[in-house]
Design brief:
The chain contains one helix and 22 strands. Strands 16, 18, 20, 21 and 22 form a five-stranded mixed sheet that branches. By secondary structure, it is mainly beta. The chain starts with 5 loop residues before the first helix and ends with a strand. The radius of gyration is 37 Å and the shape is elongated. The N terminus is likely disordered. A hairpin with a 5-residue loop joins strand 3 and strand 4. The protein has three domains: about 80 residues, Immunoglobulins (Immunoglobulin-like, Sandwich); about 90 residues, Sandwich (Immunoglobulin-like); about 100 residues, Immunoglobulin-like.
């Protein structure tokens, strides 16, 4: 019998171990089932006006999220949100209800730990909303579109318990916020006042009202007036002009600026690039073309023009004249 070399025995043993290792031994990876500890020191940082703001101490474990539970007047706690932060704000609450909160920690594999200490209170309606900001009023008298209005808009209120806005209107600046001056109650930060007249100025202020009927102080005042439509003086009714006509119109009471628009038809084809002016006359300036040249008026062609009047420094259109025609000789 020939002796077995040690290296052959070692190789055979290694192969046997490999074969054994390739079979399923029924033991899988060990799953983490240990939940995180409870968050500590849950507390109310701020409460009132339908809001409860909470904070707590983080658990000593990486990659956790927190589940926030709420109960109302002793009811069963219900999960209302999940956050990765150690603070949470609950908004839009009922003023007269007592709320209680608990927070749990959840690890990366979904184990949820025990609840924190409870904390809560009653978010009484203690403060009125802040006044609305950036109130703007823009009047329009656009006969072609049958628009005679003053459009109001303002910044949306950040109040979580906001209910409505009240729009007040008066004929004199600084009038009191009286019921007689209440023009509208709206849910959105916009209102179109179509009960206006040409040449009549109204002054507007807006307040915010919360669900508890507390009303803010008034916004800053804004006003505008629908202007009369400009009356065109020259050229009109197809009058012949030079290739660089000087347009003239009559002043509109209350207007701060004007702009002339020249077109190739009564509805389309603007070819002018004339800046706004405070005067009641303007010389034709053509718009720039893609080839670097400027639009010119051609002899024998009929053109149309109108004037836009504005009450604002940014030249927002207020009223617009009727179209008139002219012909270049």
């Amino acid at each position: 019998m020939r002796p077995t070399h040690p290296w052959l025995l070692a190789t055979a043993a290694a192969l046997a171990l490999c074969a054994c290792g390739g079979e399923d031994d029924g033991v899988g990876p060990v799953r983490d089932t240990t939940p995180p500890a409870a968050p500590r020191n849950l507390r109310v940082q701020r409460i009132g006006d339908g809001e409860v703001w909470l904070a707590w101490t983080a658990v000593a474990e990486d990659r956790v999220t927190y589940r926030v539970y709420r109960s109302a007047s002793g009811s069963t706690p219900v999960r209302i949100d999940t956050t990765s932060q150690t603070a949470f704000g609950d908004k839009g609450l009922d003023y007269a209800t007592e709320y209680t909160y608990e927070v749990t920690a959840v690890d990366a594999v979904g184990n949820e730990g025990p609840p924190s200490n409870p904390a809560g209170g009653q978010p009484l309606n203690s403060l009125a909303p802040l006044p609305p900001q950036s109130l703007r009023a823009v009047a329009h008298n656009l006969t072609l579109l049958s628009l005679l209005e003053v459009v109001l808009d303002w910044d949306s209120s950040p109040e979580s318990d906001l209910a409505v806005y009240r729009v007040y209107r008066s004929r004199t600046p600084g009038a009191p916020l009286a019921t007689a001056n209440l023009r509208a109650v709206v849910a959105r930060p916009r209102f179109v006042d179509d009960q206006v007249a040409v040449g009549e100025t109204f002054y507007y202020r807006v307040t915010a009202v919360d669900r508890g009927e507390k009303e803010s102080l008034a916004s800053d005042e804004a006003s505008d007036v629908p202007l009369a439509a400009p009356e065109l003086a020259y050229p009109i009714q197809g009058e012949a002009t030079t290739p660089t006509p000087s347009f003239r119109w009559r002043a509109v009471p209350g207007a701060r600026s004007y702009q002339v628009v020249v077109t190739t038809s009564p509805t389309t084809g603007e070819i002018s690039a004339m800046p706004s002016t405070t005067d009641t006359a303007a010389n034709f300036i053509g718009r720039s073309l893609a080839d670097g040249t400027t639009e010119t008026l051609r002899p024998g062609v009929v053109y149309y023009w109108l004037v836009i009047a504005s009450t604002r420094a940014d030249h927002t259109e207020n009223s617009v004249s009727a179209f008139e025609s002219f012909k270049v000789r």
